[in-house]
Specification:
There is one protein chain. The protein is an alpha+beta fold and about 375 residues long. The protein has 3 domains: about 160 residues, no CATH class; about 100 residues, Peptidoglycan recognition protein-like (Lysozyme-like), CATH 3.40.80; about 60 residues, Roll (SH3 type barrels). The protein is about 15% helix and about 45% strand. It has 5 helices and 27 strands. The strands form 6 sheets. A 7-stranded mixed sheet has the order 4-1-7-8-15-9-12, with no helix packed on it. The protein has a 5-stranded mixed sheet with strand order 16-17-20-18-19, with helices on both faces. Strands 26-25-24-21-27 form a 5-stranded antiparallel sheet, with no helix packed on it. A hairpin with an 8-residue loop joins strand 7 and strand 8. This is SH3b domain-containing protein. It holds the Pfam family PEGA. Keywords: Membrane, Transmembrane, Transmembrane helix. It comes from Candidatus Woykebacteria bacterium RBG_16_43_9.
């Protein structure tokens, strides 16, 4: 056989083998795995290998065993009003449940979640993002991630903690002849120790930190402040960074508060190594103060109204006494500007002049 024919045969064998691997083997993969997905607080569209599988909460049955690409898309409500994404590779194992729990934040930095996958084997493996997190099992610290453990079969409480991140707790079940792999994503904590600097029309809090991940990204940091504000029980309206830039939680709501001279809550996104607010931030805060125009009560003109008199008219005198001359007369129902008053007498304006009338036959309006 010539070398050319042998080469053609070998090439044909390689192509056939590739086509069988690419298109034939998937036909023989078992479709008996399960997938459960929850996204707390929002509904999310579920995509598996770019195919839509519906919305969360999602429970898929008879799914193809093997590696897949998972993508979640959700629309965050006000004040964020944006579409957020989460994508990750997952492995579905025959006759087991893979569970994905995800909590969308306004951006990746402040999102969190966990993925639980079973493999053939025994025990527990824990992977975290960021790495090096403290791992607690049933109330006791057992090490830092990544870590492999061999707990007893049954239900356990798993807790993941890390400095500058929000802790995450979950309940896990260790089953016989299966190894549970837990991957945990922690959300950054946007607060160090909020410190009140000012209280008045502006309630100003110092949120300064020395963390580079926040100081490098003021916009995501501000969004994280608004998203997790309930954790510090402060309802922030805006945040101002070291450059003097203002980030609003809800600009329309802010404008309405300023218009009505209502109290606003502002967080300062600064560097903890600086002893005071930056010059730019101070200027921005001062500009906000100027927006609060002092509210003046509309000047009210005092008036009196003439009441019914026995004679049908009321005398207007030149002074507050019956001994003063009558200079005019007014009729019941008439209204006049009140200029002054003394015991039993009102001074009114009438026809460009002034005079006094008895309080017995007049009332203030």
């Amino acid at each position: 056989m010539s070398k050319l024919k042998l080469g053609i045969i070998i090439l044909g064998f390689i192509i056939t083998a590739f086509l069988l691997w690419k298109f034939g083997l998937p036909l023989f993969r078992p479709s008996n795995s399960f997938l459960k997905i929850t996204t707390e607080g929002v509904e999310s569209e579920v995509f598996l290998d770019d195919d839509s599988f519906g919305q969360t909460p999602y429970l898929g049955e008879k799914l193809e065993v093997g590696d897949h690409s998972l993508r979640l898309e959700a629309k965050l409500p006000a004040p964020f009003n944006r579409t957020v994404l989460f994508s990750t590779p997952i492995t579905l194992t025959a006759q087991t449940l893979t569970a994905v729990n995800y909590e969308f934040g306004p951006n990746d930095m402040f999102s969190s979640g966990d993925i639980r996958t079973f493999r053939v084997g025994e025990g527990l493996s824990i992977i975290t993002s960021p790495g090096g997190a403290d791992v607690w099992l049933d109330g006791e610290i057992v090490g830092k991630s990544p870590i492999s453990l061999s707990p007893n079969h049954g239900v356990h409480r798993l807790k993941i903690t890390h400095d500058d991140f929000i802790s995450r707790e979950l309940e896990i079940n260790i089953e016989q002849d299966l190894r549970l792999i837990v991957e945990v994503f922690l959300a950054a904590n946007p607060f160090d120790e909020p410190k009140k600097l000012e209280e008045g029309k502006i309630v100003l809090y110092d949120l300064s930190t020395d963390r580079k991940d926040l100081l490098d990204k003021f916009q995501p940091w501000a969004e994280g402040v608004f998203f997790f504000e309930k954790k510090v029980k402060i309802n922030f309206d805006a945040a101002v960074d070291v450059n003097g830039k203002t980030y609003f939680k809800d600009k329309d709501a802010w404008d309405e508060k300023i218009k009505e001279a209502q109290q606003v809550f502002v967080g300062y996104l600064g560097n903890k190594n600086e002893k005071s607010l930056s010059t730019s931030a101070q200027k921005t805060i001062a500009d906000i103060r100027l927006q609060f125009k002092p509210t003046k009560k509309p000047a009210t003109t005092k008036q009196i109204q003439i009441l019914t008199t026995p004679t049908g008219t009321l005398n207007v005198r030149s002074g507050p006494s019956l001994s003063n001359n009558i200079i005019s007369k007014v009729k019941p129902g008439g209204k006049y500007k009140l200029l002054d008053e003394q015991a039993d007498w009102y001074k009114i304006e009438i026809n460009g002049a002034t005079g006094w009338i008895s309080t017995q036959y007049a009332k203030k309006l």
